[in-house]
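Per-residue structure
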Amino acid sequence: MLSYEKFYLKKDKVSQDGKVPVMGRIMVNGTQAGFSCKLNIDPALWDEKTNYLKSQRDITHGCSRKDIAARQRLSIVLRH
């Protein structure tokens, strides 16, 4: 059973264009796992209080599709 999920920015890995990777952390049946969402964003688009993007319209369509695909893969893993 999924205990929690958390998304965060890995701020120590800033790319040349100023973007940082979005990372995820989940706990399932007492086992914690961390993963990369394969998404780099401008830190200004990130809401520190909610640990999510401030707005989907702030990012390009390509990044939005990547985010959706990552969530779908996570959903499939959690079902098994």
Observations:
- The mean pLDDT is 75.
- The longest helix spans residues 61-79.
